[in-house]
Amino acid sequence: MTGDSITDAEALRKADVGLCMGSGCEVAKDNSDLIILDNDFYSIYRSIKYGRAIFDNIRKFVQFQLTINVTICFITILGGCTTGRVPLNIIQMLWVNLIMDVLGAIALGTEAPRVESDTRISRKDGIVTPFLWRSIICMSIYQITIMMILMYFGEMMFFKESFNLITAPLREPHSVNPADPLKLDTIQFYVFIVMNLFNQFNCRIVEEGKYNIFAGLWRNVFFILVIGFEFFLTWAMVDIGATNIGSSLIGTANITPMEHLAVWLFGASTLLVGLIIKKIPIGPFKKVADHIDLESEDGNDKLSQMYNKANEMHSKARASIGIQPDLATTGGHKPVSAS
């Protein structure tokens, strides 16, 4: 509405989204949701277009981050329980955290609106759709499988002499030179990072029926700069392992050119796997989306019920050994004394 008079205020207040011209009266603007400052109706189209782009970019980022989280959590727990050490050390974990948080948000959160005609987004549409569940679950399974193969069979794949995965030292005795176990950990770190950097290209698609992951890539300069920086710094972290001080700081070791080639082949394979995943029927993942709701606050989905049950068991265990429940386990409320 133009909002020329006070009588427009009631209509603007009751509208789902009330838009008022910047030249309208103050009462009308106070009751509107959006004010078109340039008095141009084309601004409404631009705001809708960029609103949909932001919504899509959130989906891209969530898809990318959940895949990394699921994989790294599983591998870290599995490695700690079976071999007594985790494939990635603290410095490498921090680099993973930067990739999946800050740098990932910059790369995927700055995607421009699609050029082709957009489908309407309903208010009821969730962020994590069955399409995203399919990509997250299937890609996580693939990455976990690759990491498990490297963790348990990497010493047979890359080294002439086998070694004990549990007792073998990371460095040679009475020396700072890296031993084969440290080289294997370096390969695992390198493969994990490169797989997820290539998977960033897969995450640029969040709609069924689209396969060109490079469409419109040139329009996002931030994505190109960030992904190039991530590839370069990851390579540098591995290459610096050739020096004693670099190996001690980063926890990497120098690897051969053939091992570099194998790492990049493992990483690039996620592009092919991502294409295959898009051919998997979406039906079973609709059931996953129905049973796991990461957005609502009612706590009626299966995942929330499991979390609440575990939280209740944790509170009982703390109480049994005389530890008072904290605010995190009492829903943010202070415990009430019996007196």
What does this 3D model show about the protein?
The protein is an all-alpha fold. It has one domain (54-291): Calcium-transporting ATPase, transmembrane domain (Up-down Bundle), CATH 1.20.1110.10. It has eleven helices and two strands, in the order H-E-H-E-H-H-H-H-H-H-H-H-H. It has helices at 8-14, 26-30, 42-82, 90-109, 130-158, 180-202, 221-239, 244-250, 257-277, 283-291, 302-320, and strands spanning 19-21, 34-36. The chain has a two-stranded parallel sheet with strand order 1-2. Helix 2 links the parallel strand 1 and strand 2. The longest helix is centred in the N-terminal third of the chain and has 41 residues, at 42-82. It is elongated and about 85 Å long. It starts with 7 loop residues before the first helix and ends in a 19-residue tail after the last helix. The model is unreliable at 327-339 (pLDDT under 50).
Question: Features of this protein?
Answer:
disordered C terminus; mainly alpha; Calcium-transporting ATPase, transmembrane domain; two-stranded parallel ribbon; elongated; 339 residues
Summarize the structure.
With 339 residues, the protein is mainly α. Helix content is 59%, strand content 2%. The chain has a single domain, classed as Calcium-transporting ATPase, transmembrane domain (Up-down Bundle).
Biggest sheet strand line-up: 1-2
**Secondary structural class:** mainly alpha
How much helical structure, as a percent, in the residues?
A: 55-70%
In terms of DSSP E residues, the strand content is: under 5%
Order of helices and strands: HEHEHHHHHHHHH
Number of helical stretches of at least 4 residues: 11
Distance between the amino and carboxyl termini: 60 Å
Can you say what the CATH homologous superfamily is? Calcium-transporting ATPase, transmembrane domain
CATH architecture: Up-down Bundle
Name the CATH class: Mainly Alpha
Largest sheet: 2 strands, parallel
| Uncertain stretches | 327-339
- The total beta strand count reads 2
Please, how many domains?
Answer: 1
Instruction: Output the CATH topology.
Output: Calcium-transporting ATPase, transmembrane domain
On the 0 to 100 scale, the average pLDDT is: 85
State Rg: 26 Å
What's the overall geometry?
Answer: elongated
